[in-house]
Amino acid sequence: MAKKKQKPSVKKQKDEKLSLGDLLNDDIVSKLKNTQQQLKEEAQKKQEEELERQREERRQREKNKSFEELFNESNLKWSDYK
């Protein structure tokens, strides 16, 4: 004989449709979203500070190059001016 298929209960359907946001208080959800936004802003600020620090280091290295380093980087050839 054929087995009867059980219909899913109404309670299971309601549980499946609920999301985590529905289960948490609105206050908690708003606090979590604020915290997430703050963390994103902090990460972006750190990244910008790191880029600024790298730019400053490059500028200082360029400023403090010796004559030999500058000479080796130049494309001029003494034989062209002979």
From TrEMBL:
InterPro entries for this protein: DUF3886
Disordered: annotated span: 1-22, 35-66
Biased composition (Basic residues): 1-11
Domain of life: Bacteria
One Pfam family hit: DUF3886
Biased composition regions of type Basic and acidic residues, renumbered to the chain: 39-66
Name of the protein in question: DUF3886 domain-containing protein
Organism per entry: Bacillus timonensis
Phylogenetic lineage: Bacteria, Bacillati, Bacillota, Bacilli, Bacillales
